[in-house]
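Record Imm1 family immunity protein, 146 aa.
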Amino acid sequence: MTIDARWSVLTDDGEERGMNQLIRDPEQVPELVGLLADPAADLARLIHRDRPWWDESRRFLDHDVYATVQDGFGYLSHQDSTRDKAYPVGDPSSEGCEFDDDEFPPGSGLPLEAFTLAISEFLRTAERPTAVTWREFFVGPSSSGW
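=>
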C-alpha cells in the first residue's frame, strides 16, 4: 500500500516549491503530519496508489482526499466514487480553513493524534477511515453546511 502525498511550500523568495512524499509504512505518517504543520505548507492531496481508476483511459482518480495541519489541528476530507465529500466530526473549537481546492468547515479539525491515525488507516485500507466519524457537507441556499 502506498500514498503519494503532494503539496507545495511557499519559499522565502515568494515562489512555490512542489513537495511530495511516498508513504509506504505507517511509521512515515507522523513525518508527513510534521511537514504539513509547516506554516508555509499548502493543502496536500493524498493519492492512494492501490485504489482503482475512475476512468483509466483518462487517468482520472476515483478519489479525492485532502489533508492539512492548521493551528494545531489536522483537517481531512474524503470523497470517492461511492461517497460524497465528507469531513470528520472534529474538535468544536477548530475554526476550519480554506484553500483553493477545499474548504474545511469549523468543527472539522482533528487532534493530531486522531488525524495521524486516520491517515494511517487510509494507508492500510485504501478506504475512508473509520477511526473518525464523518459528516457529508451539503452546499445549498437553505443549508448551513452540516
